[in-house]
Amino acid sequence: MGSDIQLVVERDHFLRILAVILDPQAPDEHRSAVADFVAHDIADFAVRCERFRREIPGLYPAQVRFADDSAELEELLPNADVVVLESLPLPARDVARLKPAAIVLKFGALTSNIDVEACRRRRIPVLNLPRKVNGAVAEHAFALMIALAREIPRYNGVVTAEQWRERDRPVRPYDQRYTGASNFARLPDLHSLHGARLGIVGLGEVGREIARRAGPFGMSISYFQRTRLTAADELNLGVRYTELLPLMAESDYIIVQLPLNESTRGIIGRKQLEAVKPGAMLIDVARAALIDREALLWAVESGRLGGLAMDVGYEEPWRADDPLLRLEDRNVIFMPHTAIAHREIGLSDLEQLCRKVWLVLDTRRTGRRN
Question: Are residues 146 and 287 located together in one domain of the fold?
Fold first, then answer.
């Protein structure tokens, strides 16, 4: 055990950190890049790693090899003791290439990309990891949605009569002998989530976390994606399948939550935005390129969209001359890709991944169940 262990890992931007945690042969350049990536939240990542490795004796040191695609994965599988996947498929023909004592771990809760039955027949354990990061992204989507509903970005801090006069909207007080003073600026068309329809484009790991949170807010939920869920999953999540154009037309809030690839790039274009219910709010906490930039600019400038929130940009950092940034007088929110929040959240997912693998290895070695 130890340095003879080989992990074959899908090359995801967070999973790349595993090489620094587990592989003493990771290049210094890789270590420096990861330390810089987490430095604003975790000042001494090297010390943290050293401390954590004492929790997983026998898993560290290990060799970590990365696969960019299915072809690379297939080539690396015969020597893998542990296979860590996010979205790459592991069909039965690839399961047959694994060592008898291999371990498969899904970096997420859903194992639909893995032939679990083929693994079961070979007695290869399949672990999963519901990720805290996905919950953090779902929280961020809700924060943006609520902020748009109440037009917080447009009116935050505008609270004095003088400020409203500067906006050519002088405050005319209510007669508080008979009324309250709520909404003393008389802002029209503020909205509530309760009773509204949420349309989720992409009901994967994060999309499901969003759906679970929408129910308690009293929202009805439609979703669209290439593969429809089972009836049982739809019932458990409280969602209704809808084709994309009807979803755009009926939803008060639309969240785009798909992986970015050639089949999803620009999936929300002019046709889809023209179908939007006038005044609907659009939220993107996944990838900007899922939405056609020119069509998006039209939808906000024309007033077709009542609000727009993006945690992600078409370039990151954003270009200073991005035409979307000139929409600051509208009900818009542009964030610097902060949905994942504190780096601790992502690192705790990776540490839990290591603990799960170590527990299987240690149980096999000692016969104990910890």
Answer: yes
Kindly state whether residues 278 and 347 are assigned to the same domain. no
Q: Which of 16, 131, 208, 287 is catalytic?
A: 287
Q: Could you say which residues of the chain have pLDDT below 50?
A: 1-2
Active site residue 287: yes
User: How many separate domains does the chain show?
Assistant: 2
Query: What local confidence, expressed as pLDDT, does residue 1 receive?
Result: 46
Q: Active site includes 294?
A: no
241 DSSP β-pair partners: 223
CA distance readout (Å), 328 to 124, 221, 333? 54, 29, 8
Of the residues 31, 154, 212, 337, which is catalytic? Answer: 337
Query: Is residue 364 a contact partner of residue 31, using CB atoms and an 8 Å limit?
Result: no
Q: What per-residue confidence (pLDDT) applies to 366?
A: 86
29 is a catalytic site residue = no
pLDDT computed for residue 370 by the predictor: 55
Q: Give the span between the Cα atoms of 296 and 309, in whole angstroms.
A: 11
pTM of structure: 0.94
Element (H, E) at 301: helix 293-301
Domain co-membership, 142 together with 260: yes
Q: Which of 165, 316, 319, 365 is catalytic?
A: 316
pLDDT (0 to 100) of residue 89: 97
Q: Are residues 348 and 283 in the same domain?
A: no
65-98 per-position pLDDT tens digit: 999 999 999 999 999 999 999 999 999 999 999 9
